[in-house]
Amino acid sequence: PVGGTEALSVRARGDNCAFHYAHCPEYRAILDGFGFRPEQLQSPEDLGDLPFLTTLYLKSHQLFSLPRSRMLIRATSSGTRGKKSEIGFEAGGLWAGFHMVLRILRYHHFLSPVPTNYLILGYQPHKSNQTAVAKTATGYTYITPAIHREYALKYGKDGYYVDFDGLIRALERYSRSRFPTRFMGFPSYTYFLMEELERRGLRYPLPKGSKIFLGGGWKQFYRERVDKETFYAKAWDRFAIPEEHVYESFGAVEHPIYYADCRAHHFHVPVYSRVIIRDVRTLEPVPHGTVGLVNLLTPMLKSVPVLSIMTDDLGVLHDGESCPCGVKSPWLEII
Q1: pTM, two decimal places
Q2: 27 CB contacts (<8 Å, ≥6 apart)?
Q3: How far apart are CA 244 and CA 247, in angstroms?
Q4: What is the C-alpha to C-alpha distance for residues 265 and 333, in angstroms, rounded to an integer?
Q5: What is the pLDDT of residues 172-203, one digit of tens each?
Q6: DSSP structure string for 38-99
Q7: In angstroms, rounded to a whole number, what is the distance separating the alpha carbons of residues 326 and 114?
Q8: Could you tell me if 329 and 318 are in contact, meaning their C-beta atoms sit under 8 angstroms apart?
Q9: For residue 320, how far is the Cα from the chain centroid?
């Protein structure tokens, strides 16, 4: 159980499933094809029987339970072979998402009144870019008063390009500031920046309170991925930022829930979601500690039926008691 909320969680998912069943003909056809009805969601164990949608399916099919005119914000995934998932947030879903993010940011002490310089290791905003990862990287710079924002991926006449020189010029200024710096964005570009500094023989010790926030994964740079210990060591060497001030988040556009790592760098399942690990062959739920496909569930949105989403990630769900941080909810390890 996550905070003793199982009964409420099951009821919310049942209501959400019934709404999508009534308002999205394609989703209703999928559930009917599996012989599943919303009223079958009566207990936590029933969540494993709920038919899921795969992220790959959503990259090829648009399923909406509300008209686009009721979606206040729309976002897309980064794209797989040119195909992108699209979701929208209706007013209720947007309000719920705002409260979720606010509560998690408060819990982790990420909100601050101290003015902050930002290095965004991601995309500069542009009307051609509607990806969720671009929107959130810039969005999280508003959790403190932002003095200046510098982007790794700038938009030019030929599209996006990497501007390490601009980042280094900004670092030079930020290192002389009395205000802290926060890094936001992809771990890959953050690491590539640190390697570029090492090649040039540059170090920029940053003011006390500076932090690194990582999100979005390594994506096409998975071959260059390094272990966390190597990353932490280089962050201390180049910026004097200690491991305890390096944070990582996990999420997906098809599952808009904010997973922030704890002080032991584990992704505990927040109260707003549930995670099922499924056998790669049978797709049946497996016990904690077993590797399988990661199935993410949330009743947040009425606009899009993303109640149960199967990713193409392999993961393990661990008992909360196995983490030294003290949080009791299970924690998700992405393999």
Answers
A1: 0.88
A2: 20, 21, 63, 65, 305
A3: 8
A4: 10
A5: 999 999 999 999 999 999 999 999 999 999 99
A6: GGG--SGGGGGGS--EEHHHHHH----SS-GGG-SEEEE---BTTB--EEEE-HHHHHHHHH
A7: 28
A8: no
A9: 20
